[in-house]
Amino acid sequence: MTIEYATPYRSRSHIPPDLGRPYFVEKGQGDRAHLFGDLFTIYAGGEQTENTFNFFTCEGPKGDVIPSHSHPDTYEVFYITAGAVRLFVEDTEGEQYERLLTTGDFGFVPKNCPHAYRIERHHSQIVGVAAGPGGTFERFFESLGAATLDHGLPRTPVVPEPHRFGTVPQEHDVLFLPDHRWRTAG
């Protein structure tokens, strides 16, 4: 049984738009968006948690490093449920870390820390949780990328127009760092 709701973001969603209701979402039935070569699926966001956290998955093929960025007010968790993902993080003192995370591994990125990742194996999946006092950023994926009803990866990468990198991210606590360089080996 599937219940469909309308939200401010979608005419059809499996996530209720109001607070205080338990709900259940079948695998892959959350709000979905394509960004770059990846599929992001949102299962809970700001509307359901009073902007305290979000819960999403990212599935993608082996690929390039996603653009370096930080979240001024948001802490982010990376938990790998399939495949392998290389996580790059720089702490607030400027020390850089690089770690290959495989199935069952966990990575934590504090707020204000530049970070990026690269999916190292096809069919990898990240479970992400983000939380912070400034709200949640789950609608960033469909605002910068493209909302989709598809369950699979995009047939061609969804690459936003360059000017969108200067407008959409600030609305969602994402600060792109185009000049950031990783000194680590990966």
TrEMBL record:
<dbReference type="InterPro" id="IPR014710">
    <property type="entry name" value="RmlC-like_jellyroll"/>
</dbReference>
<dbReference type="InterPro" id="IPR053146">
    <property type="entry name" value="QDO-like"/>
</dbReference>
<feature type="domain" description="Cupin type-2">
    <location>
        <begin position="61"/>
        <end position="119"/>
    </location>
</feature>
<dbReference type="Pfam" id="PF07883">
    <property type="entry name" value="Cupin_2"/>
</dbReference>
<dbReference type="InterPro" id="IPR011051">
    <property type="entry name" value="RmlC_Cupin_sf"/>
</dbReference>
<dbReference type="InterPro" id="IPR013096">
    <property type="entry name" value="Cupin_2"/>
</dbReference>
<protein>
    <submittedName>
        <fullName>Quercetin 2,3-dioxygenase</fullName>
    </submittedName>
</protein>
